[in-house]
Amino acid sequence: MRKKPTRQGQKLKTLIQYVQRYPSGWKKRLELAELRYEMGHWEEAILDFRWVLIRQPNLSEGLSIRLKLGKMLEIL
Predict the structure, then answer these.
(1) CATH number of the domain residue 55 falls in
(2) For residue 49, what are the domain limits?
(3) Coil, helix or strand at residue 1
(4) Distance between CA atoms of 47 and 2, rounded to whole angstroms?
């Protein structure tokens, strides 16, 4: 079941504000990247995923992030 667009929009706004306030926090940046990916904001998602991978190269979710990046880059 997909989330309502207004709920996603509010969460997007909240996460953007959070990462602006705490720019070194990678967990919320990853959450923001995932949300942007789900919403189809791929160019922003790519930047956020890359940011997370640079700062957390041994992240357990690293493989799935790299697969999503590959998919987005292939389509774009």
Answers:
(1) 1.25.40
(2) 5-75
(3) coil
(4) 24
pTM for the model: 0.86
Contacts of 66 (CB under 8 A, 6+ apart): 53
Q: CA 51, CA 62: separation in Å to the nearest integer?
A: 12
Q: How many domains does the chain have?
A: 1
Phi-psi region for residue 29, left (φ > 0), alpha (ψ -120 to 50) or beta? alpha
Q: Rounded CA gap, 34 and 31, in Å?
A: 5
Taking only the tens place, the pLDDT of each residue in 11-38 is 999 999 999 999 999 999 999 999 999 9
* pLDDT score of 48 more than 90: yes
